[in-house]
Amino acid sequence: LPLLTLQDIDKVYQNGTVALQGVNLTVHPGEFISLVGPSGCGKSTVLRLVAGLGTPTKGTMTWPGSTQQRNDLAFVFQDPALMPWANVVDNIYLPLKLKRQRLRSVRGSIQAAINTVDLNGYGQSYPRQLSGGMKMRVSIARALVTKPQVLLMDEPFGALDEMTRSRLNSDLLRLWREKNWTVLFVTHNIYEAVYLSTRVVVMAAQPGRVVANISIDAPQVRT
Ligand code: ADP
Ligand code: ADP
Questions:
Q1: 3-state helix, strand, coil in the chain (%, to 5)
Q2: pLDDT (tens digit, 9 = 90+) per residue, 142-168?
Q3: How many angstroms separate the alpha carbon of residue 57 from the centre of ligand 1?
Q4: For residues 193 and 172, is the Cβ–Cβ distance under 8 A?
Q5: Which candidate in 13, 40, 48, 101 could, as Cys together with 53 as Cys, close a disulfide (CB 3.0–4.6 Å)?
Q6: pTM for the predicted model, two decimal places
Q7: Cα(7) to centroid of ligand 2, in Å?
């Protein structure tokens, strides 16, 4: 059963911009799908619709498996969007706090998330004390502490230098394999897309649409 299907989706914004026209996409559990294409082709719009931030103007979006999955989403943006006044532990705690979980009962999960992104010893540090790559790893830890099934990533590593990016790419692949995530990943970088993905969806602009849908056979990174 697919996890999610988008059928013939149009999205027209209030100002008349046709961001998407006739988009079809089927996402199966465990897939790692990259959306690539020029700026303005509607990649972020797709992610926002999947996240339930806004509704399609036309077409249908369904979660055939269960409605549960749409609540198990986590979003990672290019801007790690950490709270500057809170330390790493408290930043990672935020989504759990919003779910009314007590810090005392989730300290172990938070520490595990910190270990997973290789930030041992930085729990009491503040965002201003961390490098760009480290802040992004905090942002990933904040996503994974909620144990999501679906991870939506919008150019997460776009602002980072090449070395940091390549390191985070391998970390992400390791996590994807460990955690059984379904990932929708937006990037400008076709090499990154091919390296990471089981499927690459190529989009074009004006109007935003899907022009190619390519399965990637990359056993060397999937063993
Ligand atoms: P991408 O992520 O591929 O760069 P977006 O989904 O951000 O593309 O945008 C697709 C199109 O919709 C662009 O023309 C963009 O300017 C427009 N757009 C995005 N968000 C809005 C909005 N809130 N209101 C109006 N137009 C928007
Ligand atoms: P960026 O390249 O974006 O600045 P990095 O994550 O590559 O970010 O980290 C930059 C600096 O922070 C490097 O000097 C690196 O050694 C140090 N650093 C990053 N993560 C850790 C860590 N877990 N423990 C110790 N030092 C770290």
A1: 35, 25, 40
A2: 998 998 999 999 999 988 888 888 988
A3: 14
A4: no
A5: 48
A6: 0.85
A7: 43
